[in-house]
Amino acid sequence: MITFRPNVAVVIDTSGSMSEQELTDALNETRHAMKTLNTPISVITCDAEAHIAKRVFDPRSIELIGGGGTDMCVALKAAETLRPRPDVVVTITDGFTPWPDRAPVAEHITLLTNKGGQKPKFGKTISIG
Predict the structure, then answer these.
(1) Global pTM value
(2) CA dist 13 → 1, 2, 69, 84 (Å)
(3) Helix, strand, coil shares of the chain as percentages rounded to 5?
(4) Where are the beta strands (DSSP E) in 31-119?
(5) Hey, which residues does 90 pair with through a beta bridge?
(6) Domain ranges (residues) in the chain
(7) Residue 61's Cα: distance from chain center in Å?
(8) Under CATH, what is the fold of the domain 8-127?
(9) Could you tell me where the beta strands, DSSP code E, fall in the chain?
(10) Which member of 36, 69, 105, 111 has the lowest number of beta carbons within 10 Å of its beta carbon?
């Protein structure tokens, strides 16, 4: 049998507004995605700038770089430059960020860690907070 495994990128919001619990939740969601898909994923950490994207085989190797302001527009643009291009981009954020006006090229899922946060006008949003 042939199984399709999507190429997945996860964007983790590492801005100063993300609490320790929200960051822990983001890592747990990423770990769960890797286990479910049984494949490595690309991880981008982002505050006001997108930090180095890494193909991750073990969630313990994810470095949460950031702590400043927030701009998910930058993160989604960085995800579009990944090669191979992701089929799905999952953004884990508190939602206290600007969002791009247009949908990214890939399917997009937002995991919102804070009910007061703003969700994008595209893709699917799931509240986890």
Answers:
(1) 0.94
(2) 37, 34, 10, 22
(3) 25, 25, 50
(4) 41-46, 54-56, 88-93, 107-112
(5) 10, 109
(6) 8-127
(7) 16
(8) Rossmann fold (3.40.50)
(9) 8-13, 41-46, 54-56, 88-93, 107-112, 124-127
(10) 36
